[in-house]
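From the shared-data thread, chain only:
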Amino acid sequence: MPDYAPGTPSWVELSSPDTDASAAFYGELMGWSATEPGPVDQTGGYRMFEQDGKTVGGLMGHMQEGQPTFWATYVSTTDADETAEKVKAAGGAVVVEPMDVMDLGRMAYFADPSGAVFAVWQPKAFAGADLVNEPNSLCWNELATRDVEAGREFYPAVFGWQAGKPSFEGAPETYTVWELDGKAVGGMMEMSDEFFPPDVPAHWGVCFAVSDTDAVVTKARELGAAVAFEPMDMSLGRFAGLIDPQGAPFAVMQMPSSE
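Structure, as tokens:
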């Protein structure tokens, strides 16, 4: 299990209007299995996506009408309540107040000043994903916003991140790599009308590592997903954007061959 230092993304979670359909889609596409729903009165029917028996993400149904379908990013913290105070002091908002999740940990949902929603996880019995940075698991979390300056003020105040420059080729000039103690923990890109229509709100996106981006995109189409942008080569690897059949956007990345 990875050791998630405070301020490091540690978990991703899909909110879906049809969890059975989502479990079937990602099972076919990524090879994930989904655990059976937990007790509704305790977990709300929460499920886990697993890759070879290792947890890679969460799956939950919509809890109220109008809830968006998306992949949420959770950032590890030592104190969810203290983080809530930092969010408010930095101009953000509390969407879901800090709450205990059985004996697993304590969570909360927030919105940054641009409206991008993210979550925090204060671990107890559960630290986060068992598997990351391997095929069919999380490899990157990225904020898309039209106000990068506000982001560069907000997230360092909340998580202690430093705004660094990308070391890879092909990144936009305004791209930010979030660093924690010298290690990259995520990114931030400026939303432009070229890639994001004006009605797309600021948001956190997730990217999963895959063995073959083109094969995944072809399979996703067969399974009813939409392609947000076709596979493209970057110095980091081969990248593509998808929208699952329930409407949740995500990206996939094939890492460069080490040969």
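The longest strand covers residues 93-101.
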